Amino acid sequence: MRTKLISLLTLLALVSACNWAPLSKPGKKVRVLELHEVSSCTKKGTTTVTTKDKVIGISRNEETIAEELIRLARNTAPDLNGDTIVAKTKVVDGKQTFTVYKCVDPNN
Hints:
Helices cover about 30% and strands about 25% of the residues. The chain is α+β, with helices and mostly antiparallel strands. The protein has a four-stranded mixed sheet with strand order 1-5-6-2. The chain has a two-stranded antiparallel sheet with strand order 3-4. It is elongated, with a radius of gyration of 17 Å.
């Protein structure tokens, strides 16, 4: 019984730490900056991304969720002709909003 419990807890820990959002090829070119670093950039819009914050009723690791949301936002920025993202909100229930900017050749 104890071995089954340890196995189940190990499995749940692994699942709660899993990343399900791979970084796309265009997303790899998108930078993550702070607001004070984009003063010479052009704002292109916002993107709100979501991911699961619980799996089988168990909360996932907060750092893993934040990293996944950044990857999702980086993946969507090229759709808005952006090359940079800045977090606009904090992570709440697996959801976060980012502002998308064009910083490289911002007039295009």
